Design the sequence.
C-alpha cells in the first residue's frame, strides 16, 4: 500500500516537472514563428495567399499581432495550452484534428519499433556477451556497427527493393490496402503486413545502439560481487546470467530507450516519408512541401508533448523494474 | 605523439577507418580536378547503367553519378566538420563555465540540455532549416544547435571532476586568474574525451545532413548524397544504382568515422583497456 502511494506521488512530481518543459517548447515555437519569413499572421495562415483578408485580420486580432510582443507571447501560450493550434488551409482542417488523426499510425509504428529494437537489442547483446570474443560476438558487433552507420531512409529503400520489388512479399507503402476494404482480422493482418518494413527500418538503428549497451552492461555486471556470491551459493552459470545479471543489465537499456523516444519521432519523419506511412512524420514531410510552417510548428509541439508523456510512462516502468528507486 | 600513433595502430578497426576515411577525403579534395565543372551538368543520355562509359552511370537528367559522389563527399565532410566545430566550441564553453563556476549557470545549462534531450531534435533541425531557408549555413547552424548539449554535458562533467583536484587548487592558491586555470590547466586535461565525442558528432552530423537533403532541405546549389538518393527513389525499380551508390558512400564514410572514433578512444584512454 505504501509503495503504491509513494509511486503516485512520484508520478505527480514528474508531471509537475514536465510543465516548464512544455512552456519552454511553446516559447521556442513562438520564436521560430517570428523568425520565419513574412509576418507571423501569414505564417499562421499557412500558404501565403490562400487565406481570406478577413481571416488574416481575425488571426492578427486573436494572436494580438498588433499588440506588444509580451502580450503576443502570452496569447500564444494561452492558445497553445488550450490546443488552439490554428487552421491548415492545405488540408482544410484545424491543425489539432489533423494531428490527432495522424497520432494513431505514428504511435503504432513507434511502439512496434520500441518493442522490436529493445527485445532484439537485449537478446543479441546477451548472446554477444555470453561468450565475449568468439565469432558470434564479433559477428553481432560488426552487424551493430554497420547498422549504426546506415542512414534510415536508405535502409528503407533497400528493403523495398529486396522485399517488395524483387521478392514481392510485402507492400511498398501505405498502412493498408485501401481498395480491399478488409474488415476485422483481415484488416489487422493487412496493417501488420504494411507495418513490417517501416518498423524493421526504424528498429535497426536503435537495435544497434541497444546491442552495444546491453553487451557492455552484461560484461560490467558479470564482474560484480553479487555474481561471485551467487556462484558461491552453487547456482548454475545460466541461472546466474538470466535471473541475476540480466535484470540489472537491462536497466541502462530501458533508460536509454526512454531517452531515445524523441529521436525515434525524428526518425519516423524519414521512415514515414519513405513508406508513405500516414503518421505525424509524413504529415511533417507534406507540410514542408506545402510551406505550411504553422502545421510544422504544431507537429513539433504535439510530438514534444508526446515525448514528455512517454518519458513519464518509461519512468513508471522503471520503478516497477527497479524497486531501489523510490526517489 | 609517436606513442599515441603506436597505440592507435594497435587497433585494427581504427586503422581500417583511417584508410577508408583517407580515400573519402582524397576524393573530396580532388573532386574539382577529376570532375571539373558543375556536378549538376548534363553529360550523357539519362539512365546510362554503371560501369560503362561513366563509372557509376547517369541519373534521370543525364548527370554523372560519380561526379555527384565526389562533389557530395566535399559537401558531407565540410558540413560535418563545420557543424561539429561549432557544436564543440559552444559546448565546451558552456560546459566549462557550468562545471567551473557551478551554481546558477550550472542549473541553467542542465535544464537546457535536459530540454534538448526531450524535444525531437531532428524535427527541430527540420524546422530551423525550413524557416531559415535551406543553405549550407542554415544546415550547419541547425546541426550545431542540436548537438552542442552533448558536448556541454561531457565537458561539464570533466570540469566538475577536475575542479577539486590538487593541481587546480594549487593554481588557484598561486593567484592565477580563472581564465588561466581554465584554459591552461583544466582544458588541456579534457581534450581527449572532447576529441572522441567530436569525432562521433561528425558522423552524426553527416547522417543528419543526408536525411535533411533527402527530405528536400539540402542546399540547392551544392550536390549532396542525400539529395541524390531523394531524387533517385522514384526510379528504384528501373535504376537501382541511383539510390544504392550514394547510400554506400554515406555508410562507408560514417562507418569509417565511427571506427576512427573508437580507435581514438582506445588510444587516448589507455586506462580503459583490458
Sequence:
Amino acid at each position: 500500500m505504501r509503495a503504491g502511494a509513494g509511486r503516485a506521488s512520484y508520478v505527480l512530481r514528474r508531471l509537475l516537472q514536465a510543465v516548464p518543459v512544455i512552456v519552454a517548447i511553446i516559447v521556442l515555437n513562438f520564436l521560430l514563428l517570428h523568425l520565419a519569413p513574412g509576418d507571423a499572421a501569414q505564417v499562421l495562415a499557412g500558404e501565403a495567399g490562400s487565406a481570406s483578408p478577413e481571416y488574416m485580420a481575425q488571426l492578427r486580432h486573436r494572436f494580438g499581432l498588433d499588440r506588444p510582443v509580451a502580450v503576443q507571447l502570452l496569447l500564444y501560450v494561452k492558445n497553445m495550452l488550450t490546443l488552439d493550434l490554428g487552421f491548415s488551409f492545405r488540408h482544410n482542417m484545424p491543425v489539432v484534428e489533423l494531428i490527432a488523426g495522424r497520432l494513431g499510425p505514428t504511435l503504432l509504428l513507434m511502439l512496434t519499433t520500441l518493442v522490436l529494437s529493445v527485445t532484439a537489442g537485449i537478446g543479441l547483446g546477451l548472446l554477444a556477451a555470453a561468450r565475449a570474443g568468439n565469432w558470434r560476438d564479433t559477428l553481432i558487433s560488426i552487424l551493430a556497427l554497420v547498422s549504426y552507420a546506415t542512414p534510415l531512409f536508405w535502409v528503407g529503400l533497400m528493403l523495398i527493393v529486396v522485399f517488395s520489388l524483387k521478392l514481392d512479399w510485402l507492400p511498398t507503402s501505405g498502412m493498408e490496402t485501401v481498395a480491399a476494404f478488409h474488415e476485422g482480422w483481415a484488416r489487422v493482418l493487412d496493417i501488420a503486413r504494411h507495418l513490417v518494413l517501416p518498423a524493421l527500418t526504424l528498429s535497426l538503428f536503435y537495435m544497434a545502439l541497444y546491442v552495444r549497451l546491453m553487451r557492455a552492461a552484461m560484461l560490467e555486471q558479470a564482474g560484480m560481487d553479487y555474481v561471485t556470491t551467487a556462484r558461491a551459493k552453487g547456482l548454475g552459470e545460466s541461472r546466474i546470467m538470466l535471473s541475476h545479471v540480466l535484470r540489472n543489465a537491462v536497466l541502462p537499456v530501458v533508460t536509454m530507450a526512454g531517452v531515445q523516444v524523441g529521436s525515434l519521432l525524428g526518425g519516423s519523419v524519414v521512415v514515414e516519408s519513405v513508406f508513405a506511412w500516414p503518421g505525424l512524420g509524413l504529415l511533417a514531410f507534406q507540410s514542408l512541401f506545402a510551406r505550411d510552417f504553422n502545421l510544422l510548428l504544431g507537429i513539433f509541439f504535439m510530438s514534444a508533448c508526446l515525448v514528455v508523456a512517454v518519458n513519464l510512462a518509461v519512468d513508471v516502468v522503471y520503478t516497477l523494474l527497479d524497486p531501489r528507486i523510490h526517489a | 605523439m609517436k606513442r599515441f600513433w603506436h597505440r592507435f595502430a594497435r587497433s585494427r578497426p581504427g586503422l581500417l577507418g583511417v584508410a577508408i576515411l583517407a580515400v573519402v577525403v582524397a576524393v573530396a579534395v580532388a573532386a574539382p580536378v577529376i570532375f571539373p565543372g558543375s556536378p549538376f551538368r548534363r553529360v550523357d543520355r539519362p539512365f546510362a547503367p554503371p560501369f560503362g562509359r561513366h563509372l557509376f552511370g547517369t541519373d534521370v537528367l543525364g548527370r554523372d553519378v560519380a561526379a555527384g559522389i565526389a562533389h557530395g563527399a566535399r559537401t558531407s565532410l565540410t558540413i560535418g566538420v563545420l557543424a561539429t566545430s561549432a557544436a564543440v566550441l559552444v559546448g565546451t564553453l558552456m560546459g566549462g563555465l557550468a562545471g567551473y563556476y557551478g551554481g546558477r549557470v550550472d542549473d541553467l545549462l542542465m535544464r537546457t540540455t535536459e530540454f534538448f534531450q526531450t524535444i525531437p531534435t531532428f524535427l527541430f533541425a527540420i524546422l530551423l532549416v525550413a524557416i531559415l531557408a535551406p543553405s549550407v549555413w542554415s544546415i550547419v547552424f541547425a546541426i550545431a544547435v542540436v548537438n552542442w548539449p552533448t558536448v556541454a554535458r561531457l565537458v561539464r562533467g570533466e570540469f566538475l571532476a577536475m575542479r577539486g583536484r590538487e593541481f587546480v587548487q594549487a593554481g588557484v592558491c598561486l593567484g592565477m586568474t580563472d581564465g588561466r586555470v581554465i584554459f591552461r590547466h583544466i582544458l588541456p586535461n579534457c581534450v581527449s574525451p572532447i576529441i572522441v565525442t567530436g569525432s562521433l558528432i561528425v558522423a552524426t552530423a553527416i547522417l543528419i545532413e543526408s536525411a535533411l537533403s533527402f527530405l528536400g532541405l539540402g542546399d540547392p546549389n551544392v550536390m549532396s548524397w542525400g539529395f541524390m538518393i531523394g531524387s533517385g527513389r522514384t526510379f528504384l525499380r528501373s535504376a537501382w544504382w541511383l539510390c544504392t551508390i550514394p547510400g554506400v558512400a554515406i555508410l562507408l564514410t560514417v562507418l569509417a568515422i565511427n571506427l576512427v572514433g573508437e580507435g581514438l578512444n582506445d588510444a587516448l584512454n589507455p586506462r580503459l583497456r583490458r
Summary: The mean pLDDT of chain A is 81. Residues 141 and 212 of chain A are 7 Å apart (CA to CA). The radius of gyration of chain A is 24 Å. Strands of chain A lie at 87-88, 93-94.
